[in-house]
Write a structure and sequence with these properties.
491 residues, 2-enoyl-CoA Hydratase, Chain A, domain 1, six-stranded mixed β-sheet, alpha+beta, five-stranded antiparallel β-sheet, Pdz3 Domain, 3 domains
């Protein structure tokens, strides 16, 4: 679901991708927009979102949005720095509390700062329940040890820091917000506190002692060198890899990796929807499983970023006896921009994309249309008739969360692990448009999808059996070990 998770952007800088810094002038202000440009962009933003977003007022009323727009406009009393306005756009988008309705304009400024040699605070964290925990060393000293619970940042209590970040980060729930903070804490510290030389962190160490430590800002390269030099023990699992193996004792393990073509699979055209390599992998996996005569299948969707249902259908169709639809309801708004994007798409009513293209083309501008989802038929080739178990965690996103919910709702599988942060009933299937003056790209959801059970609760996939995540500094995959033990005990 969540396009633009910060840690996924950071590696781009390793390859020399630097965001250029503009030197335009507005009324004598370097790197500024004029007041008129900024105000017009905000007004265009609000007007176009009403036409394109599948349900802009799902969690905020129109009156609340109008009041918010006026408040933002009132803060523009002259030329405004580009970085300040980009952050204002984040405020405007995050106001709706929908994760797929967002912009990444301010993050581009952070990457520009980093790419041009700017320094950041090398603080890496994970959440354990409501606690923000350090999961790396932050310097060469033994202060602030990994596993410490952070209580305040620059004198700001953690809860207040989270409230501040929530004003600029689009997220449906606090849990989803926290996963984004986990993925890119240095960037959010930069957006919150600016380019500081150091940051005071109050914490409680693993031994229970309270302490304070100033973390020195470093360059991007220095941060990664520091983490490599003082690397903690961690499970060696690589979530992006495609893996199948016989675990013994009648248990087969399948980690499908992303539900899209990997970089190595995309070929010369770079087609993310090139499905043949994935099809071959799944056919091989199910053939190996049939040969193993396994009674139980574990499908590992932890830290899976999701992708397209046409990929995941190749797995689920081998686990079912009857046709299925991946959602109980699917609606699309035919906004002018969406209609233009889908104008040349094939209108093959045998596929979901074709049905969307046809429905959008036939609809009036701005009309919300219901899409009758096509049924996915069972695949008999090495179909599996044993028990299915799915592992998820808070970083099981997009299609990974959707298919976990589907298998749970249809009674195909038992879910193990953590509740997902991403939602199986969600506003998604994003499109984009650019604002006229800043050129900032706005991401909006054109569709609303309801999980097969029909539940519209704003919540992730709740496992049938909760398993705590592996604690900081542990090299064993304890979640998988616990799941395997539970499977054997349930026989």
């Amino acid at each position: 679901m969540l396009h633009g998770l910060i840690r996924s952007f950071f590696p781009l800088l390793l390859f020399g991708i630097i965001v250029p810094v503009s030197a335009q002038t507005a009324d004598g202000c370097s790197n500024c927009y004029t007041a008129q440009e900024a105000r017009e962009d905000l007004q265009v933003l609000f007007t176009r979102l009403q036409k394109e977003h599948v349900n802009l007022f799902a969690r905020r009323s129109k009156a609340e949005y109008e009041a918010r727009l006026q408040e933002l406009l009132s803060r523009i009393d002259g030329p405004i720095k580009k970085s300040e306005f980009h952050l204002m756009l984040h405020e405007a988008m995050a106001f709706g509390n929908i994760g797929h309705s967002k912009t990444e304009a301010a993050l581009a400024d952070v990457f520009g700062h980093i790419g041009n040699g700017g320094k950041i605070i090398p603080l890496s964290i994970v959440y354990r329940g409501d606690r923000m925990i350090t999961d790396n060393w932050t310097g060469t000293s033994d202060a602030l040890p990994p596993g410490s619970r952070i209580t305040a940042l620059a004198g700001v209590p953690v809860e207040e820091f989270e409230n501040g970040v929530r004003k600029i980060v689009s997220a449906d729930t606090l849990r989803l917000l926290r996963t984004q903070v986990e993925m890119g804490m240095p960037a959010y510290l930069y957006l919150k506190f600016g380019p500081v030389d150091n940051l005071l962190v109050d914490y409680i160490a693993p031994n229970g002692e309270a302490g304070s430590h100033r973390i020195k800002a470093v360059t991007f390269g220095e941060m990664y060198s520091l983490q490599d030099a003082r690397a903690l023990p961690r499970p060696t699992r690589k979530p992006g890899a495609r893996i199948h193996r016989d675990l013994g004792e009648g248990i087969f393990y399948l980690q499908p990796g992303p539900f899209s073509a990997t970089k190595a699979e995309r070929g010369e055209d770079g087609d993310a929807y090139l499905i043949e390599p994935f099809r071959a992998f799944i056919s091989e996996a199910f053939a190996a499983m049939a040969e193993s005569e396994a009674q139980d299948l574990i499908i590992d969707l932890r830290d899976n970023g999701g992708g397209d249902a046409s990929f995941s259908d190749l797995i689920i169709a081998r686990l079912i006896d009857n046709p299925y639809r991946f959602a109980s309801r699917y609606e699309v708004r035919a906004g002018p921009n969406t209609k233009a994007v889908w104008f040349d798409r094939p209108r093959d009513r045998e596929t979901l994309a074709g049905r969307i293209a046809a429905a959008v083309a036939d609809a009036e501008d701005g009309e919300v249309v219901s899409i009758e989802l096509p049924e996915t038929q069972p695949i008999a080739d090495n179909a599996f008739g044993g028990r299915v178990w799915v592992l998820v965690n808070r970083h099981s996103y997009s299609n990974a969360a959707v298919i976990a919910a589907l298998m749970q709702d249809l009674g195909i599988a038992t879910i193990f692990g953590e509740e997902t942060a991403d939602l199986p009933t969600t506003y998604g299937a994003v499109e984009t448009f650019d604002l006229p003056h800043s050129g900032s790209t706005i991401i909006y959801p054109k569709a609303y999808m309801v999980r097969p059970s029909g539940s519209e609760e704003t919540r992730g996939v709740v496992p049938n059996f909760l398993i705590a995540p592996t604690h900081v500094g542990e090299s064993q995959d304890l979640m998988l070990q616990v799941a395997t033990r539970q499977i054997l005990l349930s026989r």
